[in-house]
């Protein structure tokens, strides 16, 4: 107890609850965006494969729970326990749910992208490695949540290093691998036809933008966590990460409508599942037909 008390002055209110509060603010802003993304998805892609629609619903429910937990988490020290030593010394009770809920969101999303890579490349070794990294990340996140529940004190935050590093580093490597593999695979699918290649270029840009956002955020979390272990500055990144994962996935799912419009072959039905991209050649007698199935090609194609 004496050791924990001596460390308390380092964990002042500004450096502990300030970053957490700002992180929750950004989390709620991203949740508002997620609501719009979810509504757009269910209105636009009513004929998507059932499991994908259920997957989107699963993510939205977990993100809603995460937002509620975060608000309750900040209520405890800043309102309910305001001005007490208990509020300053200890992590909020519900803070231990943060890493657990986050990996329940991020790991399935990474596995979803691994499945997409397998469908595109027809190879399993990279997707399997991504799944292994995602599973390790989930183990690290659950381990971190359990340790948070056990240690309770802000002063013991450095004890989270091992589990948090396992969580964030494996997740970051998985994100980078997903982005790099999708970009490489899509680049190899260019045909030389302007219409098709312009669609592929847009998919590549979207893949880089969405994939690197989560990787950069995870790197920022690790850097702040390791270099400033006795502050809560890493929570600026940490508390927004799950919403970034879900928003990035939903944005790629919802981008299919604009990609289909670029192809110039969008049918009158907005909910058509199979969009065919026909590319003609004056030299060839036969038209090359590229069929993009919305249940197979989201969010990579």
TrEMBL record:
Q: Which UniProt keywords apply?
A: Membrane, Transmembrane, Transmembrane helix
* Domain annotation DUF6534: ranges: 171-258
Q: Which domain of life is it from?
A: Eukaryota
InterPro entries hit by this protein:
DUF6534
Q: Name one Pfam family in it.
A: DUF6534
Instruction: Write the lineage as a comma-separated list.
Output: Eukaryota, Fungi, Dikarya, Basidiomycota, Agaricomycotina
> TM segments?
20-42, 54-75, 95-113, 125-144, 164-183, 203-226
Q: Which regions form coiled coils?
A: none
Q: Which organism is it from?
A: Dendrothele bispora (strain CBS 962.96)
Recorded protein name is DUF6534 domain-containing protein
């Amino acid at each position: 107890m004496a050791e924990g008390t001596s460390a308390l002055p380092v964990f002042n209110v500004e450096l502990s609850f300030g970053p957490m509060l700002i992180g929750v603010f950004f989390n709620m802003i991203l949740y508002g965006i997620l609501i719009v993304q979810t509504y757009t998805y269910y209105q636009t892609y009513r004929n998507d494969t059932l499991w994908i629609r259920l997957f989107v619903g699963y993510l939205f429910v977990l993100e809603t729970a995460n937002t509620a937990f975060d608000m309750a988490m900040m209520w405890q020290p800043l309102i309910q326990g305001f001005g007490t030593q208990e509020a300053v010394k200890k992590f909020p009770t519900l803070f231990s749910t943060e890493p657990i809920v986050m990996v329940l969101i991020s790991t399935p999303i990474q596995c979803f992208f691994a499945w997409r890579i397998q469908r595109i490349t027809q190879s399993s070794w990279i997707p399997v490695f991504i799944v292994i990294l995602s599973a390790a990340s989930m183990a690290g996140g659950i381990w971190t949540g359990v340790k948070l529940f056990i240690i309770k004190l802000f002063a013991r935050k450095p004890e989270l290093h091992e589990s948090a590093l396992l969580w964030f580093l494996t997740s970051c490597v998985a994100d980078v691998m997903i982005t790099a593999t999708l970009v490489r695979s899509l680049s190899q699918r260019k045909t030389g036809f302007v219409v098709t290649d312009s669609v592929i270029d847009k998919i590549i840009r979207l893949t880089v933008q969405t994939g690197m956002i989560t990787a950069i955020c995870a790197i920022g979390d690790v850097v702040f966590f390791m270099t400033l272990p006795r502050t809560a500055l890493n929570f600026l990144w940490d508390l927004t990460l799950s919403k970034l994962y879900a928003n990035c996935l939903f944005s790629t799912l919802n981008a299919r409508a604009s990609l289909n419009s670029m192809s110039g072959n969008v049918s009158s039905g907005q909910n058509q599942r199979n969009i065919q991209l026909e590319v003609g050649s004056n030299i060839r007698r036969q038209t090359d037909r590229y069929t993009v199935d919305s249940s197979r090609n989201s969010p990579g194609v």
